[in-house]
Design goal:
single chain; 160 residues; alpha+beta; HIT family, subunit A; 6 helices; 5 strands
């Protein structure tokens, strides 16, 4: 058996919100954006780092409303979500200079939604060759940047 030590995750697993509380709702209520990884707050939606990213710079646009589908989202929140996704594309291109981007929404657990009860849109930079044997054979992601560094970069981009 292989072991991959991740001591930086200990704080997260020991201070995670109650399993019954939605992580997005808990983050939205927080007054400490750095601690919950929110990089931008809009009127109807906010932008947050993915705590378990596929790549450095992996962010999500999340409505404040706890809804599971696009059809349950208000028109105002839906329009803002798409506008924030467009802004996220620009910020990710400026900060990370990727070869491409993935933007997507998984609706429902069987569609791949890790948090199925609260709609969210993923935006992440991609580079040619950014997958390697660690992900394929070791089921492990190797990220070159700490979440704190990513938060600083993305927060600055959204403030400018």
């Amino acid at each position: 058996m292989d072991y991959l030590w991740t001591p930086w995750r200990f704080q997260y697993v020991t201070t995670a919100p109650d399993a019954c509380e939605c992580v997005f709702c808990a983050a939205a209520k927080s007054r400490d954006d750095r601690a919950v990884l929110i990089v931008h707050r809009g009127v109807h939606d906010f932008v947050i780092l993915n705590r378990f990213p596929y790549t450095s710079g992996h962010i999500m646009v999340v409505p404040y409303a706890h809804v599971a589908t696009l059809e349950d989202l208000s028109d105002e929140a839906l329009v803002e979500m798409i506008r924030l996704a467009r802004a996220a594309e620009g910020h990710l291109r400026a900060v990370y200079k990727p070869d491409g981007l993935n933007l997507g929404i998984n609706i429902g657990r069987s569609a791949g939604a890790g948090i199925a009860g609260h709609l969210h849109l993923h935006a992440l930079p991609r580079w040619t060759g950014d997958t390697n044997f660690m992900t394929v054979t070791g089921e492990t992601r190797v990220l070159p940047e700490d979440l704190e560094v990513t938060w600083e970069k993305m927060r600055k981009a959204w403030e400018e």
